[in-house]
Write a structure and sequence with these properties.
473 residues, mainly alpha, two-stranded antiparallel ribbon
Length: 473
């Protein structure tokens, strides 16, 4: 609507961090932003003009935020000396009082970043300011990929992305889904079920890795891959919900938006006030699973742009008016093809089926592959000030030896490994699991694992039952 666009235009006119009134007034609404501020380890940087290998989207994730966790998560293998020297070029010198965070509460205090012997006064740091556990597991994984890079004769960063075999698998999944489309759009009933399942397996294996920049070294390929997820999320919604919020701060109240989906009906943390409807959440999760991605696709983005916040947790990144219009145009196209076109092709009864069931099937696939990954009694309302340990403690790996589950979930079943190394393509995660488990055992960090999906689902149901009970006052 015009009203929404006018509101968004006011947001666009701000620098990505809010500045003082005089600079706001001096900034033309149609002028491009002159700065791109983000804060890392307490220091402000202006990355405007920096051509990041991960592309402009990679940098936009940290705009106006304390980007420390995002920065460390996305650079576990990059030379620290190189990183420090690059940062030094973009460091904001002098007075920074005019720079403000999008969210004043985003202070970056969730994790501790210990200084090791790597830091010296004569030059840049030689290693990341992380714990012994993080150093050990990162070194082991780095050594593994260096050996793979040498064996394949490719650069190190290419070795952590999709392998040639992985590309072949993705091509076959693409063909499998495409093969169902003629039958789907001609109204054949078998395709009503097979096509969304084929889409899901293809989509999750492309979209999720693409959003973590882990399919290819070419950021354009990754960006294109994020548009494969039209049945369950838009890139804008997903970056706010998943990459900026959930992945950096899993299960941290007011930081992880996944704790607040359908909050009026479901309670996933004791920090959320109990409501009478939560008493029935052991049964209401069924319909929520069926409509979950519909809300992510259409309802959540509208709320994000109207309120400026995603699920009480992540502030809206500043965008140009053109980018906002493009987003909503894309949602309109998706809505048309998914929910309107069937009524132009089929009788009403069949149109309803083809407009409702496919997205519901995809939604159930998405929810079954994601909800059990963090929402269990062992993972909820627990934390660590060590960023890497926190990723392990709040994540849940399930059915690690089941190749069918691995394919169906797009590797999301190896959740601990994925959270530790999000920029690694999931085709490598099974090789990393033994290293991660061994390091966790050595350092006394609980590695939460279930042998089967059924066991994981039972834990999820137990979690819902426990949080459905009103706390004693």
């Amino acid at each position: 609507s015009t009203r929404l666009l006018l509101w968004c235009e006011r947001q666009r006119s701000w620098p990505f961090c809010h500045c003082n009134e005089s600079s706001k007034q001096a900034t033309s609404k149609m002028a491009p932003r002159q700065h791109q501020y983000m804060r890392i380890h307490g220091q402000w940087y202006d990355t405007k003009g920096f051509e990041h290998p991960g592309g402009p989207i990679m940098l936009s994730l940290g705009e106006g935020r304390d980007a420390t966790a995002l920065f460390e998560a996305h650079h576990p293998f990059t030379s620290r000396v190189r990183l420090e020297r690059l940062l030094a070029k973009y460091e904001v010198k002098g007075d920074t009082s005019h720079i403000e965070l999008l969210d004043p509460l985003d202070k970056g205090e969730e994790f501790l970043w210990p200084e090791f012997e790597s830091k010296n006064s004569d030059g840049p740091a030689e290693g990341a300011p992380v714990s012994d556990f993080a150093h050990e597991i990162t070194a082991k994984v780095r050594a593994y990929f260096q050996a793979e890079a040498d064996r394949r004769g490719v650069p190190f960063m290419q070795a952590i992305k999709a392998t040639p075999m992985r590309w072949l698998e993705l091509a076959l999944l693409t063909l499998a889904f495409a093969a169902t489309l003629p039958a789907f759009w001609s109204g054949q009933m078998w395709a009503l079920f097979v096509s969304p399942l084929a889409y899901w397996v293809w989509g999750v294996n492309v979209f999720h890795d693409a959003s973590h920049f882990s399919i290819s070294r070419d950021w354009r390929v990754n960006t294109l891959g994020t548009y494969v997820g039209w049945y369950f999320s838009s890139p804008v919604e997903w970056y706010h919900q998943h990459v900026i919020g959930h992945h950096a701060y899993p299960n941290i109240p007011r930081k992880d938006p996944d704790l607040y989906h359908a909050a009026s009906l479901q309670r996933h943390t004791k920090t959320l006030r109990w409501r009478p409807a939560h008493e029935r959440q052991s049964s209401t999760w069924y319909p929520i699973w069926f409509i979950g991605t519909y809300a992510m696709n259409f309802l959540k983005p509208v709320i994000l742009f109207l309120t400026g916040t995603y699920n009480r947790s992540v502030k809206l990144a500043p965008m140009s008016r053109e980018r906002i219009a493009l987003h909503f145009a894309g949602r309109a196209v998706v809505f048309f093809f998914c929910h309107v076109l069937p009524f132009l092709l089929f009788p009403t009864w069949k149109a309803i089926l083809f407009a409702v069931l496919p997205v519901g099937i995809v939604s159930c696939c998405f929810m079954s592959s994601s909800q059990v990954n963090h929402l269990t009694p062992a993972n909820i309302d627990t934390s660590s000030r060590d960023y890497y340990a926190h990723q392990v403690l709040t994540s849940h790996t399930f059915a690690p030896n089941n190749k069918l589950v691995f394919l169906f979930t797009g590797g999301l079943n190896l959740q601990i490994e994925h959270h530790l190394f999000p920029t690694v393509n999931h085709c490598h995660l099974a090789k990393l699991q033994p290293m991660v488990k061994a390091a966790c055992k050595k350092h006394g960090i609980n590695y939460h694992e279930s042998a089967t999906f059924g066991e994981a689902l039972t834990k999820y149901q137990t979690h819902l039952a426990q949080l459905s009970v009103k706390d004693h006052e």
